[in-house]
Amino acid sequence: VLSIMISSLATGTIITMTSHHWLMAWIGLEMNTLAIIPVISTMYNPRSTEAATKYFLTQAAASAMILFSSMINAWQTGTWDITNLSYSPAHILLTTALAMKLGLAPMHFWLPEVLQGSTLTTALIITTWQKLAPMALIFMTLNNLSTTTLILLGLLSSIIGGWGGLNQTQTRKIMAFSSIAHLGWMITIASIMPNIMILNLVIYMIMTTALFCSLILSKSKTIQDTTATWTLSPTLTTMMMILLLSLGGLPPLTGFMPKWLILEELVAQNLSPTATIMAMSALLSLFFYMRLTYTTTLTLSPNTAQAKFKWRFKPNRTTLLMWASSTISIFFLPLTPLITQ
C-alpha cells in the first residue's frame, strides 16, 4: 500500500510539473493530496487523524481556488493554457491558493499542526516533496503574477517563520516554521530572479532532508530528545550541529549561498528595505537553530544510572541518503561561482 501511495505522490507531482493545461495541473495536485492523506493517518491515533483532516481541508480549499481561478481566466481569455494567465482577479486568486498550498504566511496555520500530528518521515515528505508541484506552478505563471504581492508574502513568511519558531519545543514544529521562513525567501526572489528561486528550493530540500534523516535516526521528537544524540553517535551529533548552522545560513556553509544571492539581487533591484527586513528575520530563525545546536552538542540529558543509553541500540538502517545530503548541505558554498555563472 505504501508503495502505491509513494508512486501516486511522485506521479501527481510529475503531472503538475509537465502539464500545460490547468485541468491537468489540478488533477496532479489532487493526486498529491489524496496520496499523502493515508500516509499521514497511518498512526491510528486522534492526533494523526486530526492532522490528516486539517491537511485535506486546506489542500482541497486551495485546489478549488486554483480551479476557480483557471476557470475565470479561461472564461475571460478563451484558453486553458497555464502560461497565459492574463486576467487580473485570476492571478490574485491563484497566488492566494498557491500560498495556501505551500503554507506561506498568512495562510500558514495548518502546517505546524499537520507536521506535529505526523511521523518524522511523513513530515519530511510534506516539507520537501509536497512543495514541488505548487512551486512549479508559481514558476510557470511568474510572468503574470504580481511582484508586489509575492514580495509581501515572502516578507511576511520570513518574519512569521522566524517568530513562530522561537516558542517551540517540538522539533517537527520548529521544522514547520523553518519551512515557512525558507519558502518566504524563495517567494521574495521568485519574480526577480526565478533561477535563484530554483537553486534555493533545491538547497532547502537537500538541507531539510539531511536534518530530518538525522532526527529520524536519533528519534528526536522534542528539543530535550536531541540532548541524548551524543550517546547514540558523536559523528551524527557533529553533523547535526553543522547542518543546523547551515540551515540558519551561516557563511562558510551551503545554507549561506541562497541568502547571499537573494540579498545581493534585492539590493541590485533597489529593494534595500526588503533586503534589510529579510536579513533581520533570518536572525530570528538563526536563534532557534542555535538553540537546537546548543542542546544537541553542548548538553547531556540528565539520565539516571539505570537509564537505557541509546548506544545499546545500534541504528540498523542505511544512512547513505543522510550522509550524502548532509555533505552537500555543508560543503557546497565554494561551488557557488560555477552554479551562478
UniProtKB/TrEMBL annotation:
Residues 286-339 form the NADH dehydrogenase subunit 2 C-terminal domain. It catalyses: a ubiquinone + NADH + 5 H(+)(in) = a ubiquinol + NAD(+) + 4 H(+)(out). The chain crosses the membrane at residues 23-44, 56-75, 87-111, 123-142, 148-167, 174-192, 198-217, 229-250, 270-290, 320-339. It is a multi-pass membrane protein. Its EC number is 7.1.1.2. The keyword Transport applies. It is found in: Mitochondrion inner membrane. Keywords: Electron transport, Membrane, Mitochondrion, Mitochondrion inner membrane, NAD, Respiratory chain, Translocase, Transmembrane, Transmembrane helix, Transport, Ubiquinone. Residues 19-284 form the NADH:quinone oxidoreductase/Mrp antiporter transmembrane domain. GO terms for biological process: mitochondrial electron transport, NADH to ubiquinone. GO terms for molecular function: NADH dehydrogenase (ubiquinone) activity. The keyword Transmembrane applies. One of its GO terms (cellular component) is mitochondrial inner membrane. It is an enzyme of class 7 (translocase). PANTHER family: NADH-UBIQUINONE OXIDOREDUCTASE CHAIN 2. Core subunit of the mitochondrial membrane respiratory chain NADH dehydrogenase (Complex I) which catalyzes electron transfer from NADH through the respiratory chain, using ubiquinone as an electron acceptor. Essential for the catalytic activity and assembly of complex I. Belongs to the complex I subunit 2 family. This is NADH-ubiquinone oxidoreductase chain 2. It comes from Anolis opalinus.
